[in-house]
Design a protein that fits this description.
The protein is an alpha+beta fold.
Length: 88
């Protein structure tokens, strides 16, 4: 059975205000990084899955879109890479 490594990126939709990003931006400015702007904070999640690729993709689409993100406020995208099973 194939094994996969997934990377899920969750970001706020452009229309949603990002108070955490704004706080980071202000902190950077105070630390003499005044040329930084437009900071947005998101989430990065890694998962390992196994199964047939089509089934894994459907499962990952559901997990990313309905479990790891709030589809009303956030966008989720993912990458999927087949990997060799690591033996312990």
């Amino acid at each position: 059975m194939p094994h996969y490594h997934a990377r899920v990126y969750v970001t706020l939709k452009p229309s949603i205000l990002d108070p955490q990003g704004r706080t980071v931006e202000r902190a950077l400015s105070h630390l003499e990084h005044a040329n930084v702007s437009g900071v947005r904070v998101g989430k990065f999640i890694e998962l390992r899955l196994s199964g047939e690729r089509a089934d894994v993709e459907a499962q990952l689409r559901d997990i990313a879109g309905n479990v790891l993100s709030n589809p009303v406020m956030e966008d989720a995208r993912w990458e999927l890479e087949e990997v060799e099973l690591e033996l312990a």
